[in-house]
Amino acid sequence: MDDDRLAERFEQHRGHLRAVAYRMLGSLSEADDAVQEAWVHLGRSGAGGVENLGGWLRTVVARVCLDMLRTRRSRPEEPVGVHLPDPVVDREDGVGPEHQALLAEGVGLALLVVLDTLRPAERVAFVLHDLFAVPFGEIAPLVDRSPAATRQLASRARRRVRGAAPVPDADLAGQQAVVGAFLAAARGGDVDALVAVLDPQVVLRADRGPVPGASREVRGARAVAASALGFAWLADHARPVLVNGAAGLVAAPQGRLASVLGFTVAGGMVAEIDILADPARLGQLDLAVLDGRP
Fold it and tell me: What is the pTM of this model?
């Protein structure tokens, strides 16, 4: 097969491969690296004898991601405090076509946060089977286990996900209304109104980068409401967007991005707020969604 035809066939699978890698890694840049590594591998080996190119490429990407996850866990230095996955930001009126494959299956920030707590083999087994319906027999060689043991890996991961990640409300308009009420209360400095839209067990995570003490996690409606009032000045510069397909906000004083806020709305109340305010990571996000508006 000539190089042009090989590249054309690879591009047909790029969106799917990036979606697999993003779910496994929670990092857009690392997902792109994993997909690029698959392309390099394909270029070296060619597609001769490969009956299912999509499945073959997915296996390559999964192996690369598993290696990346294992390398992360082996590093002596760990992220300081809270470390959030990369958010995917779109206009409030809908997910752009370049993100549709990436966010299929409702990959919210809350789910990615929980996936980050799984062991590498658990994460690979869960993502491939539960999110992409890959049979355990195909996953087993990747994680060096029998199909039965791989099934147990995915089952263990599933229990942890179900126990930790709140199930967001399916109604996007309802989510946006709740986040709008949160924003109005923050702008008005109204603690009681904030508490009214927060689940009593709400969790707020703020990732401000690798500065000791800068990132934190806050739990409980009153404590989260107090934290929200602490950044009320930013609320005047916030506007609605979609963050991983769910209702969210970006705050950009004078057009300069300061934070991305992802909300998990469950049962008509805010169950989780995930705030990325790390300047270095914000600078790497594709935020054409701002399109110059204040």
Answer: 0.89
